[in-house]
């Protein structure tokens, strides 16, 4: 039977999956570079970079006592599925920041390889490393933009939680993220009209931000309302209905 994602390995006890949509990303890379070997190498470099980025989130959350169910690579990048999100604002701030910091660290490591002249005589490999450097710089920078629930949006919400309740902070982060999603979607449309390759991806990411931000706001609202339930409310909402004999 056809499955949506496939288990490829484990890292630090966390299952790593690849969604079938990642194959479309691979195809885009090959078409964009006009070289099958370089396109595949660039896609694999992106996959490894994204996995390390997500492991930054997952291992930081683990340090705070929160486990990660799995990490999945897809057309839209990577996603670390935490079983529960850090509840303290500073913990969410650090967890969200960890991913971009890992991306910047990868870029720094690649730059050091070039500085010390390692593999500099291999032009093909050097080009892959140069691409990996810029890709991680952009990956880290893009994720810091306030497109909740992207990393930057979570960092923004954690700061807002200092002044507002979690539900209200999530609502503010959601609307800031939706404003960013509109701009990203418009940029994607412009790219498609002008013949760009990545416009469709930008629109999909904008749609994801719009949808997932609302879902997280509903979850935060439900959690806040749950705190004020009485025992009768809990029994009425959670207990199964009576069985009619």
Keywords:
single chain; 245 residues; alpha+beta; 2 domains; four-stranded mixed β-sheet
Task: Produce the secondary structure layout.
Elements: E1 5-11, E2 14-19, H1 22-33, H2 36-63, E3 68-74, E4 77-82, H3 89-115, H4 123-143, H5 151-160, H6 166-193, H7 199-226, H8 231-238
Parallel strand pairs: 2-3
Antiparallel strand pairs: 1-2, 3-4
Helix pairs in contact: 1-2, 2-3, 2-4, 3-4, 3-5, 5-6, 6-7
Poorly predicted spans? 229-245
In helices, the fraction of residues equals 55-70%
What is the CA-CA span between the terminal residues? 41 Å
Strand content: 5-15%
- Helix-strand topology string: EEHHEEHHHHHH
* Chain-averaged pLDDT: 86
Summed up, what is this model?
This protein has helices at 22-33, 36-63, 89-115, 123-143, 151-160, 166-193, 199-226, 231-238; strands at 5-11, 14-19, 68-74, 77-82. With 245 residues, it is an alpha+beta fold. The chain has a four-stranded mixed β-sheet with strand order 1-2-3-4.
